[in-house]
Specification:
This protein has helices at residues 2-13, 30-57, 64-93, 100-133, 138-141, 144-156, 159-170, 187-192, 199-232, 237-266, 274-298, 301-315; strands at residues 17-20, 97-99, 179-180. By secondary structure, it is mainly α. The chain has a three-stranded mixed sheet with strand order 2-1-3. The longest helix is centred in the middle third of the chain and has 34 residues, at 100-133. It is globular.
Length: 316
């Protein structure tokens, strides 16, 4: 009995690293994937950095909407930097070894930045609601102090929850396989490797997902319900078109981000396919951050004007 217990303890404690399978199932394409993801990563860095720059220096963009957009762009840079460089290194070396601590840290930052994005998108929806439904009081309600407070809450409110959840998951015994069929340490695939009963941990994941995904999403739905109602009451067709154009970009981003996040973190564990989970994660960790700056710039006349002014200054 004693020997059996020692063996069990040994099996639990010897797991000092995980192996990320990533895209090892398609080894013939690893150089192609490396090139694609490198270009995508550099594009995300460049496009979001430009948005941050123009929203900081252009006097016409010194409004709450663009203050929040600049913060969203910085958040996107942080978000992709947690996952894509590691994925590029694994594609380059064809080794997916990641230490126990590095895996925990990566999961913690992914969840932290993802939660912050959910809250920041909600703040942006509230900003549009006040701007369209209560325009006379907009400067008073959305003053600079309030904007800074809302952004600060978005950035830090989820930190203790995420750290606590990460510690809880990585305190579980991992006595079986150390192979993660994913390209980063995401919560569902790591939780699958844990030994014993993970019911309490799964409930905790659902509760946190409801708080940081579903509640903000419902607030956004309510905000946009009121916004659409107010827009439809406008007598001018030009006014309606302008109001819709200021909201459409944000609405597209919300649908894309919340849709994939809901599928990943609120789907019951037995129903999760590893291949589908990996594809969905690729969508919200790589594709959406790539699309965000494109959506916000191409559909926003103010930003396009600011970009032309910046380009003119650079070329002259």
């Amino acid at each position: 009995m004693e020997n059996r217990l020692k063996t069990r303890i040994s099996n639990v404690t010897t797991l000092m690293e995980f192996v990320l399978l990533g895209f090892s199932d398609i080894p013939n394409l690893h150089w192609t994937l490396f090139g694609i993801f490198l270009v995508i990563y550099l594009t995300i860095l460049m496009c979001n950095s430009i948005i941050i720059l123009v929203t900081r220096i252009d006097s016409a963009l010194q409004t709450p909407m663009y203050f929040f957009l600049g913060n969203l762009s910085f958040l996107e840079i942080c978000y992709v930097t947690v996952t894509i460089p590691r994925m590029l290194m694994d594609l380059l070396t064809q080794k997916g070894n990641i230490s126990f601590f590095a895996c925990a840290a990566q999961m913690c930052f992914v969840l932290m930045f993802g939660g912050s994005e959910c809250l920041l998108l909600t703040v942006m929806a509230y900003d549009r609601y006040v701007a369209i439904c209560n325009p006379l009081h907009y400067p008073l309600i959305m003053n600079h102090k309030v904007c800074v407070q809302l952004v600060t809450v978005s950035w830090i409110s989820g930190v203790p929850v995420v750290i606590g959840q990460t510690c809880q998951i990585f305190s579980l015994p991992f006595c079986g396989s150390n192979t993660i069929n994913h390209f980063f340490c995401d919560l569902p695939p790591v939780l699958k490797l844990a030994c014993g009963d993970t019911f309490v941990n799964e409930i905790a994941v659902y509760v946190v997902a409801v708080i940081f995904v579903m509640v903000p999403f419902l607030l956004i739905v309510v905000s946009y319900g009121k916004i659409i109602s107010s827009i439809l009451k406008l007598s001018s067709a030009k006014g309606r078109a302008k109001a819709f154009s200021t909201c459409s970009s944000h609405l597209i981003v919300v649908v894309l981000f919340y849709g994939t996040a809901t599928i990943t973190y609120l789907q019951p564990k037995p129903n999760q396919s590893e291949g589908v989970g990996k594809l969905i994660s690729l969508f919200y960790t790589v594709l959406i951050p790539t699309l965000n700056p494109i959506i916000y710039t191409l559909r926003n006349k103010d930003i396009m004007v600011a970009l032309r002014k910046l380009l003119t200054k650079i070329l002259i």
